[in-house]
Amino acid sequence: MPGEWEPHIATWLAWPHYKSDWPGKFEPIPWVFGEIVRYLSRQERVEIIVNDDAGEKLARRTLERAHATGGEVRFHRWPTNRIWIRDSGCTFVVPSATATPQMSQTFPTALRREKPRPSMLQAVKWRFNAWAKYPNWQDDEASGSRMAEAAGAGEIQPLFGAKRVVLEGGAIEVNGKGTLITTEECLLSHVQERNAGMTKSDYEQIFSEYLGASNVIWLDAGIAGDDTHGHVDDIARFVSPDTVVTAVEADPHGENYEKLRENIRRLRDARTEDGSALATIDLPMPNPVYFEDRRLPASYANFYIANGVVLVPVFNDPNDRVALDIFADIFPEREVVGIYSRDLIWGLGAIHCMTQQQPALEL
Q1: Angle at Cα 127 formed by Cα 36 and Cα 73, nearest 5°?
Q2: How far apart are CA 110 and CA 159, in angstroms?
Q3: Is residue 348 part of a domain?
Q4: Active-site pick, 353, 355, 357, 359
Q5: Which of these, 163, 215, 235, 225, lies nearest to 194 by C-alpha position?
Q6: pLDDT digits (tens, 9 = 90+) for 82-135
Q7: How confident is the model at residue 361 (pLDDT cuts 50, 70, 90)?
Q8: Does a structural domain hold residue 3?
Q9: Residue 48 resides in a domain
Q10: Residue 155: which CATH number?
């Protein structure tokens, strides 16, 4: 699985339609999507999943009014339950530079829809069950297979014993060289349990076989308000093969203070796949965001890196400018854009949660 900063051929999105994810605040959400598509489509193709013909017409009308029709945008009419395609979609992977044809086709515990060729894009299709929490997931479960087929990718479904492995894209973060970060809270807890009986070593074998990640860094826990029970993409993200931005909480009395300090301790003790120390960059947290007395998972770490742009959630918070300046220093070759996400986060996800990259494959 390449690093997110490596070249993409496309970004995948699913157009918002499930109003219950934003009760009382749905109206601005399509406009947030329009703004995101406007920036992405300038740099790479955008693949948008819509429920039906009416959904496509509505999306096209919104994009036109948002001046987001200047780039290449393709629509796919597939039913979805929700729009968090990072979690429900497939994970695209590319052949390793050191892989032999035999290695590229050896997946000892997997179901295959199409036998992968050594030179082709492949799609790891995890099982999706709505974060082991919600009953309406059946349409989303099919999204990854449909994405793989549309992209011309060979589909691979990892198994643990006789069962398909449940995993969401927001639960993992890779450097594209063999190191992966995840959290114990998400994958090892019995709360919202994804894969009963799977241990650290079981997960590490799966990550090595299917993502090329032989080195796994286990953090402790996610942030307060996180509906997924511990996704890593709100707390620690690679920005290069040896550098991680990591969320920090300034208030020693804040809900996130101790857990984020523990994560930083683990990152500073961690090593990359070649034994090198990780460089860490502190990324401030915004002030707590509440709606109807509920703490929401607002974090600048839920950014998305596209070909020529980095989209960063902002919350009308004093730390917005601090976070944007940090990303501008990290990515001097890319445009850094703040996307207002105070309404979006009421759906309990932000920009990284709603995007999925399709890497460019050099043949």
Answers
A1: 25
A2: 5
A3: yes
A4: 353
A5: 163
A6: 999 999 999 999 987 654 333 334 455 666 665 555 558 999 999 999 999 999
A7: confident
A8: no
A9: yes
A10: 3.75.10.10
Taking only the tens place, the pLDDT of each residue in 251-277 is 999 999 999 999 999 999 999 999 999
Task: Report the pLDDT value the prediction gives residue 355, as an integer from 0 to 100.
Answer: 98
Respond yes or no: is residue 353 known to be catalytic.
yes
Q: What is the DSSP string of 208-250?
A: HHHH---EEEEE----TT-TTSS-GGGTEEEEETTEEEEEE--
Both tokens of 275, joined, read 């034994």
Which residues constitute the domain of residue 167? 8-359
The token pair at 312 is: 């960063």
Give the whole-angstrom CA distance, residue 173 versus residue 240: 11
Strand partners, 154: 122
Question: Minimal CA–CA distance to 232: which of 242, 241, 220, 243?
Answer: 220
* Structure tokens, 319: 């730390």
The C-alpha R_g of the chain, in whole angstroms, comes to 19
pLDDT tens readout for residues 9-40: 999 999 999 999 999 999 999 999 999 999 99
Asked whether 127 and 164 are in contact (CB, 8 A), the reply is: yes
Q: Model pTM greater than 0.85?
A: yes
3-state secondary structure of 276: coil
